[in-house]
Amino acid sequence: MLDYRSGEQQLQSHADLWLTSLTGVDPAAHDGWADVLEQADRVLLARVNEAAAAGEDSPLQNMLAFMDVARRAAARGDLRVAATSLAYCETFAQGL
Fold first, then answer.
1. What whole-number distance in Å separates Cα of residue 7 and Cα of residue 22?
2. What local confidence, expressed as pLDDT, does residue 19 receive?
3. What's the half-sphere exposure (Cβ side, CA atoms, 13 Å) at 73?
4. Per-residue pLDDT at 3
5. Could you give the CA distance from residue 26 to residue 33 in angstroms, rounded to a whole number?
């Protein structure tokens, strides 16, 4: 499927549909998408580490690599790559 929206619009859609509710990170409270994704990555990593400390596996672990790609892409200003990586994360989020 081709998405002709801008990277900014795609990221906002991800935030609206699942990212904010999953991580508690609100784009309106941060300075740009790089910051939003940095904070979301921290939240996911903390939750995965909490589960590991309790001897449990976290389904959020599947998202970590894709979130890292999204975070690094946003830091470079490549919002389309960030949005594509979040699309993979969304697939995992739907299974939660």
1. 20
2. 95
3. 18
4. 74
5. 10
DSSP secondary structure of 37-90: HHHHHHHHHHHHHHHHHTT---GGGGGHHHHHHHHHHHHHT-HHHHHHHHHHHH
In this structure, what token pair is assigned to residue 28?
């309106």
Predicted pLDDT of residue 7: 84
- Of 32, 62, 20, 33, the C-alpha closest to 45 is 62
Q: What is the pTM of this model?
A: 0.89
Residue keyed to tokens 């991580």: 23
* 1 and 73 Cβ atoms separated by less than 8 Å: no
Closest CA to 47 of 38, 37, 56, 34: 56
| AA identity, residue 31 | D
Phi, psi of 4 (to 5 degrees): -90, 0
Task: Please state, in angstroms and rounded to a whole number, the distance separating the CA atoms of residues 47 and 39.
Answer: 13
Average pLDDT over residues 38-63: 94
